[in-house]
Design goal:
The chain has helices at 29-42, 60-67, 81-93, 107-113, 139-145, 152-159, 178-187, 241-247, and strands spanning 6-10, 17-21, 50-54, 73-78, 100-104, 118-123, 163-174, 190-199, 208-215, 228-231. By secondary structure, the chain is α/β, with parallel strands linked by helices. Strands 5-4-3-6-7-9-8-10 form an 8-stranded mixed sheet, with helices on both faces. A two-stranded antiparallel sheet has the order 1-2. The chain starts with 5 loop residues before the first strand and ends in a 6-residue tail after the last helix.
Length: 253
């Protein structure tokens, strides 16, 4: 993809920049929320030495995760060649080639051939069922938003091939589909460990949730009644303290 088909934007801090397609899939705040949540969960764990991102797209989640101080090396799988080329470009332009390794592959094929076992798998999967809503004619947008090439249930099941027992699977997903996510996780042998809901402000309902699951554990039970709820913005429309932590390294930006 030529440079004139891309935009270049500063994100998170002044030293981080991201190339994106002008007309294809572009990231939203969910990517920033996921990187924040992964770092929040894993910062208290001493057992995460290897990590994999499924459907990495332009690489924003893993790149910002590294900027947050996440130490383990990250492998990123992206099946779309156009997005993979942008992913490679973003890793190189942010001087993270020694920390993030990109792979252009279908996730199922990658999982079936990879001999490595990961401590952590994370994903910002397609939100909508294949038959739900309008399917974009743009392939990048269609595959990113609709379950054309795989659903969250598929990712849970396939990840068992490369996630060690006791490893973490972290996902961000629409709040309206929380029951589907919990059912899919349990069906594939995962147990909910942490969950947080995110809403625009205190007067709105949560739009998304992020959750951490443990593979092969029956003792990591977590009640939805204990879930955190975070507001991204204050009543005046500015970012809340949590919102600032999610979007910026320096909260005074």
């Amino acid at each position: 993809m030529s440079s004139n088909e891309l935009t270049l934007n500063k994100i998170y801090n002044k030293n981080t920049e991201l190339y994106q397609s002008k007309t294809g899939y572009r990231f939203n705040s969910d990517s920033m929320i996921l990187s924040w949540f992964v770092n929040r969960i894993c910062s208290g764990l001493g057992s995460v030495n290897s990590a994999l991102e499924i459907g990495a797209g332009s690489g924003i989640v893993s790149i910002v995760l590294k900027r947050r101080g996440f130490l383990p090396k990250i492998d990123c799988v992206e099946m779309q060649k156009s997005l993979y080329e942008i992913l490679e470009k973003n890793i190189e332009s942010n001087s993270l080639s020694d920390e993030i390794s990109p792979f252009c592959a279908d996730f199922a094929d990658f999982a079936n051939t990879k001999r490595k076992k990961y401590d952590l798998v994370f994903v910002n999967p397609p939100y909508f069922a294949k038959e739900s809503g309008h399917l974009s004619v743009d392939s990048e947008k269609a595959l990113a938003k609709h379950e054309v090439a795989g659903s969250l249930a598929d990712f849970f099941e396939i990840s068992k091939n490369i996630l060690r027992k006791g490893g973490r699977f972290i996902v961000i997903f629409p709040a309206s589909r929380v029951q589907f996510a919990l059912f899919s996780a349990a069906k594939s042998g995962y147990t909910l460990k942490n969950i947080a809901f995110f809403r625009e402000n205190a007067s709105t309902k949560p739009a998304t949730f992020a959750a951490s699951f443990v593979l092969g554990s029956e003792t990591a039970f977590f009640s939805l009644s204990d879930a955190d709820i975070f507001e991204l913005r204050d009543p005046d429309g500015g970012y809340s303290e949590t919102g600032m932590e999610i979007m910026y390294e320096n909260q005074t930006e």
